Amino acid sequence: MDTPFIPTVVEMTDEEYAVEVATYEPLAQSVRRLANASLLTTLTENEIAPIRAEIDALARRLEASQRTAAFGVTVTPSGRVRGHGNAVVGMRNPIAVPVKIVQDKERQRADASFHLGPLYEGPPQSVHGGVVALILDQLCGEAAAAGGVPGMTGTLTIRYEQRTPLGDCSASAWVDHVEGVKTFVKGEMRQADGEVTATCEGIFIIPRWVREMIAQGQPKPSRFE
Amino acid sequence: MDTPFIPTVVEMTDEEYAVEVATYEPLAQSVRRLANASLLTTLTENEIAPIRAEIDALARRLEASQRTAAFGVTVTPSGRVRGHGNAVVGMRNPIAVPVKIVQDKERQRADASFHLGPLYEGPPQSVHGGVVALILDQLCGEAAAAGGVPGMTGTLTIRYEQRTPLGDCSASAWVDHVEGVKTFVKGEMRQADGEVTATCEGIFIIPRWVREMIAQGQPKPSRFE
Questions:
Q1: Dmax over Cα atoms in chain A, in whole Å?
Q2: Is residue A223 domain-resident?
Q3: Which residues of B fall within a CB distance of 8 Å from A54?
Q4: Does B177 touch chain A (CB under 8 A)?
Q5: CA dist B89 to A121, A138, B25, B142, Å?
Q6: What is the pLDDT of residue B148?
């Protein structure tokens, strides 16, 4: 990746942040439920048409006032990260699970438990192999950040041991070792009973511009995207 | 993967298939638009609440009659594949782009052009690295199938060269070579101007049960999941 970013700080109090979450998180949850229902419904053509018209009308109401660019990533002065549009963890993103990742700085790792329903299907009744990769990519990046060495994904290798049944899943990633500017992260996806279904290794690279900041005596940013 | 499947054949005429597409594809498109609008809207708490109540009411109407399991993969007698719930290509799946993949059997490759909007964001204004992996996984699998050697994903390695800006993108995958039961597939993701942003290599393995079918003189299945 050649264009990393340090998130912009936005003026937002913790109270304003709480209102933001209380407003938009339930909206995304409702759209997720609608997406699932629209995938699984067996209503017929004549029954679907009026429902679709109402969905379009609701979209128009939401579109009456909207940001013109993608959500991006910002932080509040107290350090709350507003990556609300993220495709894996974004609380405002209806296509995100969302996966709630717990970073453990001491153990340089990241863990998550989550439910993958029919929207995440690949092989019948199984999690799409690419969805396994999608979640492990996010988790490995957060493990590298938890280890104090955030970086841009250089390479990511997924090894599929067996299919991952749709349903409750969990995943973990941890810093294996650091070689110069490269952080080697390992991770795994598990099915409901805890059995590992896929493993991965990611190499995260500290970009040159961060190395130059450090060489010039500036503090290393704790987070960039 | 230890549990591959040959898709079940369902009794469905081409006319019935056409009605299915005409009914549910626009529904998924409307839900995609709503998802995008809900991510980007700047309406306030009091304006959002009644919209959310209407979304919930629509979900309940769709849920009044629905399948109880994930969509799965079936084929019609004329060979149309009904993987409508697939997280990447499923026309009924609102979280799918959906990516429309063109398989070229003669050249043993698969190609696709698609638009990735704000719902697929990772780093600011950029495609999530895991979404790059998600799409390349599907594309590599279809390239292996186009090459006549469908298999289960064994490993997938993604190398990120630079960030992929949100917007128009394209991707390709092709069979590089075959070694016994392993098919080696290579692929790449490109940004709007055609510049490569990520490359990948996947190894697809013909499962033992397919090898046994072939050894017993049975025809090799043209597709399995």
A1: 67
A2: no
A3: 54, 58
A4: no
A5: 11, 22, 12, 11
A6: 78
- Residue A26, preceding bond cis, omega within 30 degrees? no
What is the predicted pLDDT for the residue at A3? 42
Express each pLDDT in A49-65 by its tens digit: 999 999 999 999 999 99
pLDDT in tens, A200-221: 999 998 877 667 766 777 666 6
Domain annotation covers residue A224: no
Q: Which of residues 47-76 of A touch B (CB under 8 A)?
A: 48, 51-52, 54-56, 58-59, 61-67, 69-73
- Specify the DSSP class assigned to residue A2: -
Q: State which residue of chain B sits closest to A122, comparing Cα positions.
A: B86
pTM of the model: 0.93
Same domain, A33 and A83: yes
Task: Number of A to B CB contacts under 8 A, please give it.
Answer: 325
Q: Which domain holds residue A129?
A: 101-215
pLDDT at A2 over 60: no
Establish if B40 touches chain A: CB-CB under 8 angstroms.
Answer: yes
What is the ipTM, given to two decimal places? 0.93
B191 neighbors B169 (Cβ within 8 angstroms): yes
My answer on whether omega of the bond before A98 falls inside 30° of 0, hence cis, is: yes
CA distances for B100 relative to B80, B113, B165, B189, B213, angstroms:
15, 7, 20, 15, 31
Across the interface, whether the CB atoms of A66 and B153 are under 8 A apart is answered no
CB contact under 8 A, A86 and B42: no
CA distance to partner chain B, nearest, from residue A74 (Å): 9
A32-36 average pLDDT score:
98
User: Which of B134, B138, B139, B208 has the most A C-beta neighbours within 10 Å, making it the best mutation to test the interface with A?
Assistant: B134
- Which residues of chain B have a CB within 8 Å of the CB of A155? 157-160
Q: Cβ contact (<8 Å) for A133 and B137?
A: yes
Contact between residue A38 and residue B94 where contact means Cβ atoms under 8 Å apart: yes
For residue A178, pLDDT beyond 50: yes
Asked if A31's CB is within 8 angstroms of B38's CB, the reply is yes
Distance from the A139 Cα atom to the nearest Cα atom in chain B, whole angstroms: 10
> In terms of domains, do B84 and B20 share one?
yes
Total number of domains constituting chain A: 2
